[in-house]
Amino acid sequence: MSRIRTFIAVDPDKAIRNRLVSLQESLAAVDSDIKWVEPENLHVTLLFLGEVEDRQLSEVCRIVQACADRHEAFLMTVENVGAFPNLHRPRVVWAGIGEGKQELCALHDELEIPMQDLGYRREERRYTPHITLGRIRNKGPASGLAQALNKKTGWKAGETQIREIHVMSSELTPQGPVYTVMSKAKLKSS
């Protein structure tokens, strides 16, 4: 029985992705100790499931499709930047979600309970929709990065229409993770 590292996500369109890459490049000039997320891997995670047995994948996909069938496609804006847990001791650099945040939270909340029923653990932290841009390698203070992020207050990447939810596999390699779409669940058209 094989296991597949799995998560559920939505993707921004190409124009948003290009603006996110430009943002990564401008921040990389300030701090070189960040492992940037590859452009094709930029996404908003709804739920990270971890290792899923291949025999359970069809049930995971069925749950995601049932959820998508109850939710309409929506507009998502990508705006603002920051760091988790905070700007003074950043571990993760992110781009935020403006419009569409409520819809993403509703999808997350609706998916979380049936996934718990399948045996997947609930996240300890409150769900905050975002796009991870990079992970800081050095865990010390990052005043240059904090200043650069503060200068980006009000940054906007634009808007994208979210029409489907993806069930993704994540294969960890020495070069970084390789994500593959295992299923697509279309949201209702308005």
CATH architecture: Alpha-Beta Complex
Overall pLDDT metric: 92
How many separate domains? 1
Helix/sheet category: alpha+beta
Name of the CATH first level = Alpha Beta
Order of helices and strands: EHEEHEEHEHEEE
CATH superfamily membership? Cyclic phosphodiesterase
Looking at CATH, which topology would you report? Cyclic Phosphodiesterase, Chain: A
What summary fits the major beta sheet?
5 strands, antiparallel
Using only C-alpha atoms, the radius of gyration works out to 17 Å
Distance between the termini: 41 Å
Low-confidence stretches: none
Count up the helices: 4
Identify the overall geometry.
globular
Percentage of residues in helical conformation: 25-40%
Q: Please state roughly what percent of the residues sit in beta strands, choosing from under 5%, 5-15%, 15-25%, 25-35%, 35-45% or over 45%.
A: 35-45%
How would you describe this structure in keywords?
single chain; 190 residues; alpha+beta; Cyclic Phosphodiesterase, Chain: A; 5-stranded antiparallel β-sheet; 4-stranded antiparallel β-sheet; 28% helix; globular
Q: What is the compact description of this entry?
A:
This protein is α+β, with helices and mostly antiparallel strands and 190 residues long. It contains four helices and nine strands, in the order βαββαββαβαβββ. The strands form two sheets. It has a five-stranded antiparallel sheet. Strands 3-1-8-9 form a four-stranded antiparallel sheet.
